[in-house]
Structure formats: structure tokens, C-alpha cells
Amino acid sequence: MFPTELNYKIKKSAIIAVLVIDDAANAVPLARALLRGGIDAMELTLRTNAALGALRAIREDVPEMLAGIGTVLTTGQVDEVVAAGAAFGVAPGLNRNVVEYAQSKGLPFGPGIATPSDIEQGIELGCRTLKFFPAETAGGLNHLRNMAAPYQHLKIDFIPLGGLNATNMRDYLASPLISAIGGSWIAKRELIAAKDWNQIEANAREARQNADSVRG
After folding, report:
1. How many structural domains is the chain composed of?
2. How many Cβ atoms from other residues are within 10 Å of residue 101's Cβ?
3. How many Å apart are CA 59 and CA 208, to the nearest integer?
4. In which domain, by residue range, is 46 found?
5. Residues annotated catalytic, as ranges
6. Closest alpha carbon to 189 in 51, 6, 86
7. What gap in Å lies between CA 195 and CA 189, rounded to an integer?
8. What is the pLDDT of residues 19-72, one digit of tens each?
9. Is the bond leading into 134 cis (omega within 30 degrees of zero)?
10. DSSP letters spanning the chain
11. Per residue in 170-198, pLDDT tens?
């Protein structure tokens, strides 16, 4: 589901900033602040009407940012995401119809999982990169290690999201199960709305330093 080149970029990035944008005009300065801090991958969530406009702006003005879309819940949204030029799509859960439709449209897609049954559905659909959500409340890294053990020979990797922060991110990134982590704390919705690009850059830089301390 994730082409080799995309999977390489995500693993190299190690951190995907997860963002809720209320005003598309904030997209470009936000992307530039993240890049200055060392983060070059993002997931714009489809929780607001501004998300697709934000994606288009970033694709045009900050092409070096790897920009995907999250909270893709319907086949109609898949069409919108593809038209807007998303590098990838993800969802909080695993909806077979949405995954198969994304495949038919050529959109690299990572469905969300929280149980072994979810993983097996993903495997059946050909998915090898899965979103572990909500990571911390579902049992955290220890739960993921135990849950993923029967499937490790299939070379599945995971992007955990939910409850990760500057304190626990190192533990996740040290695990060979993890391709990258999702970080919603780096640029919280209120920081974006306040246009606090300096704080977002500082948060991104701290996260980058933490990641580099684990992965080099």
C-alpha cells in the first residue's frame, strides 16, 4: 500500500506532524515552521473544511514537505484527497470499502488498527503500514509488541498516534516495529490558530533532536 520510496521517506522522517487547521491561510507558514524545526512530513486531518485547501497550498508553495491527509472516512473523501494531491491517506480505523477504494485510485493508504483482528484484516487487504490508534490508551508500545509478534515475519510496520509526546516518543522510535510516529503535540490546534510559528518551530526542533538521538 505504501510504495517503497514513500515508505523510505516516512522512515527517514521518523516524525509525522498531525495537524488540525481551521484557516488554510495558515498552512504555508505552518509548513515552513515545521521544516525549520526539522520535520518534513505531515498529516492534515479532515476535521475542518480548511484541510484540503491547506494541502493544495502546501503542495504548491512548500513542495519539499511530504503532506498527507488523515481522518479519511469515506470513498468520497478519497476522491477529494486524490484530487488535492495528497502523498498518502490514513484513517483512525479500518473500513474495507475505503481501503479498497483508495487502492483503486492509487492512493497510498494506512488504515488504523488496535487489535489482532484489525491487523489481519489489513493483511488481507494488502496493507503493510498500519496506523496504531489510539496508541497509549490502547495499551501503548508493550501492547503493540505483543499484538504484532505473530505477524512480524510479514514485515508489517506501524505508525502510532494518540498520547505520544516528547517524553515517550524515544521508546516508540527505538522499536523496529515503528516506521514513524504521529505527533499532534508539535503543532496543536490553538498554536496554529494563534500563528505561534516560533513555538511550533521550537517544538519541532525538540522532537527532531529526540528522534535523531534514537535513530541517528
Report:
1. 1
2. 19
3. 22
4. 4-215
5. 43, 131
6. 51
7. 10
8. 999 999 999 999 999 999 999 999 999 999 999 999 999 999 999 999 999 999
9. yes
10. ---HHHHHHHHHH-EEEEE--S-GGGHHHHHHHHHHHT--EEEEETTSTTHHHHHHHHHHH-TTSEEEEE---SHHHHHHHHHHT-S-EE-SS--HHHHHHHHHTT--EE-EE-SHHHHHHHHHTT--EEEETTTTTTTHHHHHHHHHGGGGGGT-EEEE-SS--TTTHHHHHTSTTBS-EEESSTT-HHHHHTT-HHHHHHHHHHHHHHHHHHH-
11. 999 999 999 999 999 999 999 999 999 99
pTM: 0.97
Tell me the torsion sign for CA atoms 168, 169, 171, 177.
Answer: positive
CATH number at residue 36: 3.20.20.70
The backbone region for 212, taken as left when phi is positive above 0, alpha when psi lies in -120 to 50, beta otherwise, is alpha
Specify the amino acid at residue 31: A
| Rounded-to-integer distance, Cα 170 and Cα 82, Å | 33
Nearest to 184 by CA among 11, 34, 49, 6: 34
What is the C-alpha separation between 131 and 156, in angstroms, rounded?
11
Closest CA to 1 of 137, 98, 83: 98
DSSP β-bridge partners for residue 68? 43
| Residue 44 near residue 67 (C-beta atoms within 8 A) | yes
Which cell numbers in the block locate residue 93?
480505523
